[in-house]
Design a protein that fits this description.
The protein is of the alpha/beta class. About 35% of the residues lie in helices and about 20% in strands. The chain has helices at about 10, 30-50, 100-110, 160-165, 170-175, 195-210, 225-235, 255-260, 270-275, 295-305, 325-340, and strands at about 1-5, 20-30, 50-55, 95, 115-120, 135, 145-150, 180-185, 190-195, 215-220, 240-245, 260-265, 285, 290, 310. The relative contact order is 0.14.
Length: about 350
């Protein structure tokens, strides 16, 4: 992937010629929700400067996967994983997300002889001083000289990407009546649950709201959505005009967000809420069953509300406008500035 803009010179500075693309490695365990944070930030950097992006997956042998990061060594990596022992030319920029990447990210500065600028997204919760920059969600409350806070998480959504995704699904979406309501359903986590009974109540509320507006439904589920919740929501909402994606074929999420007039998202996912708020379309948050105090999720939703992006869903569709949240781009600029001034 290569993108050129006049800002290339800012990214390279003392690290090389502006004529040479910035080399960026995106490092994670490969799960979409994890990888997309690092990749989204890398793509934001690439929109600001000439850059080549490579994706690296880190996986540990099952015996060592749950070991503390401090005890892991490259010899414990699973076959087929990215292995730092094979690297002869380190990148200019290393952007990583997730627990699996930490044992490597914390050592890249030494392995590269200081050549590589290391960025970790989320709160590493381990050796926070080992990274040149941590791009952390403001709702985590992390502080430090190398911490740059954003609302929510980095992601890949941009107006251009949404528009580019739309034609592939136009036959399915274009005939649907407005208002079109995109519904993004998460699932079970440490903080929230979505039992069948609660899913049924949400489905009935969503159905009533869409019917009252004479609209249509565009719905996706998370990998974490319990089977029973998925089944009952599909059953109760399938009579509405629209599309409930069953997980087969290409993911239509970007096309659905592009087509949507309203977005409903369950409260369990910082990623989904931030992605929805980047569209500039009204976002309403669907309640789930709390397994512990809302804590950081309550802070995130308060931050989104303060930006004018999100409100609780109370059974009706509300319309309003706000400036789309563009935190990933802001983080990309912070990365380039930190590289320039390092």
């Amino acid at each position: 992937m290569e993108v050129s803009t006049p800002l290339a010179e800012q990214a390279t500075g003392a690290r090389g010629s502006a004529a040479r693309p910035l080399s960026v490695w995106v490092v994670s365990d490969g799960r979409a929700g994890i990888q997309n944070q690092a990749l989204g930030l890398a793509e934001a950097v690439a929109r600001l400067t000439t850059a080549d992006i490579e994706i690296k997956h880190v996986r540990w042998r099952p015996l060592f996967d749950r070991w503390p990061s401090s005890l892991k060594t490259p010899a414990m990596l699973a076959p087929g994983s990215f292995d730092p022992r094979t690297v002869s030319d380190w990148p200019d920029l290393w952007i990583a997300t997730g627990r699996a990447s930490l044992p490597l990210s914390a050592r890249v500065r030494d392995w590269s002889g200081g050549r590589t600028f290391t960025v970790q997204t989320q709160d590493p919760r381990w050796k926070n001083g080992a990274y040149d920059l941590i791009v952390a969600p403001a709702h985590d409350g992390l502080s430090g000289d190398n911490v740059f806070e954003i609302i929510g998480s980095p992601h890949r959504i941009t107006p251009q990407k949404l528009a580019e995704a739309a034609p592939a699904f136009a036959d399915r979406i274009a005939p649907l009546p407005h208002p079109r309501v995109a519904v993004m359903i998460g699932g079970t986590s440490k903080a929230f649950d979505l039992p069948e009974g609660h899913a049924a109540v949400l489905a009935d509320q969503i159905k009533a709201a869409v019917q009252a507006a004479d609209g249509s439904l565009l719905q996706t589920f998370s990998r974490r959505t319990p089977d029973a919740a998925r089944a009952v929501m599909t059953e109760r909402l399938s009579a509405l005009p629209g599309w409930i994606w069953d997980g087969t074929g290409d993911n239509p999420l970007f096309a659905m967000l592009d087509a949507a007039d309203h977005i409903l998202v369950t409260e369990d996912s910082a990623n989904m809420a931030t992605e929805a708020a980047s569209t500039g379309k009204p976002v309403q948050v669907l309640p789930m069953i709390a397994l512990k105090p809302a804590g950081k999720f309550a802070r995130l939703h308060a931050d989104l509300a303060a930006q004018g992006a999100a409100r609780p869903f109370e059974g009706t569709l509300e319309g309003w406008t706000y400036a789309p949240l563009n935190e990933t781009e802001r983080a990309g600029r912070a990365v380039l500035e930190a590289m320039r001034t390092r």
